[in-house]
Amino acid sequence: MTSSALAALKRHKVDQAEHILKLGADYQKHDLVFASETGTPLLWRNLRPRHFKKILETMDCQRLYDLRHTCATLLLSAAVNPKIVSERLGRASVVLTLDTYSHVLPNMQQTATEEIEKMLPCCELEKLGTL
Q1: d(CA 3, CA 72)
Q2: Is 35 helix (H, G, I), strand (E, B) or coil?
Q3: 8 Å CB contact between 48 and 64
Q4: Residue 131 has what pLDDT?
Q5: Nearest-angstrom CA–CA distance, 16 and 10
Q6: What pLDDT is recorded for position 3?
C-alpha cells in the first residue's frame, strides 16, 4: 500500500469516528472500513454510481475492473517486475499476467540488451573479437 493511500485511510478513520459520534445510537456499528451513512454495508449496485464514478471518469475507465487493468499496465510500463505485478493482482502465477499484458512489454528485449551492455565493460567484449 502506498503511503498516500495509508494516509487517506487514516484520515477516513478519523472522519468516520467523528461521524459515528454525531449519529450516536443511530449508527449501526459493523466494524466496516467503508459503510453507508448509517453504518450498514454498502450496496453493490451503488458502488459505481455513488462511490467510484469520479475515480472512473478521472482514469477514463468504464468499469471498476478497468482500474485493475490500468494499475497492472502502469506498473509494467514502469518496469516493475512482472512477478510483483502478478502478486499485487492476487495471482498465484506470473504466467497469466505475462500473457494478458505482453502488449505492454514490447521493448523488454531492447531493455535487457541495454542493461547487459551497462553491466559488461565494452573493452572486455572487444577482446573476444567479433561476435
Answers
A1: 19
A2: strand
A3: yes
A4: 55
A5: 10
A6: 92
Handedness of CA 99, 105, 4, 15 (dihedral sign): negative
Mean pLDDT of 64-81: 88
Indicate the burial class of 73 (C-beta count within 10 angstroms; 0-12, 13-18, 19 or more): middle
DSSP string covering 59-90: TT-SSHHHHHHHHHHHHHHTT--HHHHHHHTT
Residue recorded with cell 493511500: 5
Sign of CA dihedral 37, 40, 41, 45: negative
The grid coordinates of residue 113 equal 540488451
> Is 48's pLDDT higher than 90?
no
User: In the chain, what percentage of residues exceed pLDDT 90?
Assistant: 44
Mean pLDDT of the region 91-120: 83
**Neighbour-count burial of 85, counting CB atoms closer than 10 A to its CB (0-12 exposed, 13-18 middle, 19+ buried):** buried
HSE-up of residue 25 (Cα within 13 Å, Cβ side): 0
- Which phi and psi (to 5°) does residue 35 adopt? -135, 170
pTM, 2 dp: 0.61
